């Protein structure tokens, strides 16, 4: 009986952690208001999904994208280098970067002189903002087709 109760308690305690780790898109939408001064979300077809500034890159399709690769955006050299070194945006990397962009790049690149053009720090809620942004991007089938097309073009 004791082990069943212990198992039930452990299970109940892990549920909120799991939900938190995945992020809450509704909370992320509210938190994204802080990001709008520099970022917008505009689809590949040109549809504006969230009006915002143009100081930062368009965040359409950020989920799973290599860092520093939005076409026609002038990134800092260190963010481009991080992308070339394998940085791909997922909930964990996005939350860590938005909490401390310069510190994240310095650690990722193992370069204590690395800099980020993004000065703003999102102290909490990065996972939520990522969950919100993950809704905006090409459909999985489209993304696979685009990846396949670019692989075939390089052959």
Identify the notable features of this structure and list them briefly:
two-stranded antiparallel sheet; Cytochrome Bc1 Complex, Chain D, domain 2; 155 residues; 7 helices; single chain; mainly alpha
Can you walk me through this structure?
The chain is mostly helical and 155 residues long. It has one domain: Cytochrome c-like domain (Cytochrome Bc1 Complex, Chain D, domain 2, Orthogonal Bundle), CATH 1.10.760. Helices cover 50% and strands 3% of the residues. The chain contains 7 helices and 2 strands. A hairpin with a 5-residue loop joins strand 1 and strand 2. Helix 2 crosses helix 6. The N and C termini lie far apart (62 Å). The N terminus is likely disordered.
- Helix tally? 7
Q: What is the strand arrangement across the widest sheet?
A: 1-2
Portion of residues in helices? Answer: 40-55%
Can you write the helix and strand succession as a string?
A: HHEEHHHHH
What's the CATH H-level homologous superfamily?
Cytochrome c-like domain
> In percent, how much strand structure appears in the residues?
under 5%
Task: Produce the secondary structure layout.
Layout: H1 2-22, H2 25-31, E1 41-42, E2 48-50, H3 77-84, H4 91-99, H5 101-109, H6 126-133, H7 140-154
Antiparallel strand pairs: 1-2
